[in-house]
Amino acid sequence: VTIGILKEVVAGETRVGATPDTVKKWVGAGQRVIIESGAGVAAAFTDEAYIAAGAEIVSATDAQGADIVLKVRAPQAGDIKGFKSGATVIALLDAYREKDALKALADTGVTAYAMEFVPRITRAQVMDALSSQANLAGYRAVIEAAHLYGKAFPMMMTAAGTVAPAKVFVMGVGVAGLQAIATARRLGAVVTATDVRPATKEQVESLGAKFIAVEDEEFKNAQTAGGYAKEMSAEYKAKQADLVTSHIGKQDIVITTALIPGRAAPVLVNAAQVASMKPGSVLVDLAAPQGGNVEGTLADTVVDANGVKIYGPSNIVTAIANDASALYAKNLQAFVGLLINKEGQIAPDFEDEILKAALVTQNGAVVHPNLQN
Ligand code: NAD
Question: Taking the CA atoms of the chain, what radius of gyration do you get in angstroms?
Fold first, then answer.
């Protein structure tokens, strides 16, 4: 089997789908790995490092012609033209939003899998790219906030006086939010956090942060069987807004990460609440690509709202591309392991629940049940 790695073409995308480490494993298992020249440079993986690991450096067209093509983002027109009919393509396809790209992909006859559809079951944890990237995003959100904040995070007692610790409020405690709490605590901040899923309370407290939320009957049932949040009622949202109003004016840093699968992100901080914050405060809104949790977020821009900074990075993990690529490449390698049999041939079991959930195009059509209209 020939495994091909393409250089990402989407503006600002610095990640890559293989590292010298994953290449070495494939080559050791008898597979051929071809990498488009310069594919890893933006993530600090050189062509030389890939060659040393046993890969061949090739042109974009040659890499497109591989049996299994590994990418970070959905293939664009320039990528698709070189795909072989019947080849396998795996990427974070953003399938709900990239409908045209998906149709174009189906038309080439490739079998495509969306890494974001890998189910959150125990066996698939090693392939869970949403988690591997969200974890780094949560970390980096705090680093970006610290960079934008004109004061220190830790308490410092010095001869010249005491520096107060920063107060950090994390809204949405999934994978990204938990890592944001942990990172803010490591930097010495005093951390509070909120979520609508009751299971998060214990997780927040175990990280040494204080949990605050509207804990009514609706809250008790806000987690779906799949572990995600439901969209909350207007009544709940009003109570939640009151709680946020009373809390947020005392905070220095707010990190928002709240998402609802398949929907726009809930607005958790309105303009009046932003206005109640002290000048110099910082909000980092990780939900910016899904519309934002903060009113006034503009993707990839630091908005100054009367001295309060609002930053909504659209792809924050590109700022930490080396680690993000390393973890994503491991996720891909584990996923490819489901497609290749002991003899080293491509022989997927389409009844496997992981493959079933991630398969989006096959035999010229978009086949995923959730993408039929
Ligand atoms: P996500 O990115 O979908 O959402 C982030 C957080 O925002 C969630 O905790 C959600 O409850 C919260 N949220 C949504 N609406 C909100 C609102 N109105 N107010 C406040 N908070 C709100 O979440 P995720 O990081 O993908 O995690 C989702 C679930 O998947 C969790 O239960 C997590 O434990 C689970 N998970 C399981 C595995 C595994 O077992 N393999 C791996 C990763 C995640």
Answer: 22
Q: Is the CB of 258 under 6 A from ligand 1?
A: yes
pLDDT computed for residue 314 by the predictor: 96
Pocket-testing residue among 96, 115, 117, 120, ligand 1, by greatest number of atoms within 8 A of Cβ = 120
The 10s digit of each residue's pLDDT in 14-53 is: 999 999 999 999 999 999 999 999 999 999 999 999 999 9
Centroid of ligand 1 to alpha carbon of 278 (angstroms): 29
Please enumerate in sequence order all residues whose Cβ is within 8 A of that of 39, keeping only pairs 6 or more positions apart, or say none.
5, 6, 7, 8, 16, 18, 45, 50, 63
Query: What are the strands, taking DSSP E only, across the chain?
Result: 2-5, 32-36, 56-58, 68-73, 88-92, 111-114, 156-158, 161-163, 167-171, 190-194, 210-211, 253-256, 282-285, 302-305, 308-311, 359-362, 365-366
Q: Which atom of ligand 1 is nearest to the CA of 178?
A: 25
Reported ipTM: 0.94
pLDDT tens, 279-298? 999 999 999 999 999 999 99
Find the 131 Cα to ligand 1 centroid distance in Å.
10
Query: H/E element holding 358?
Result: helix 353-358
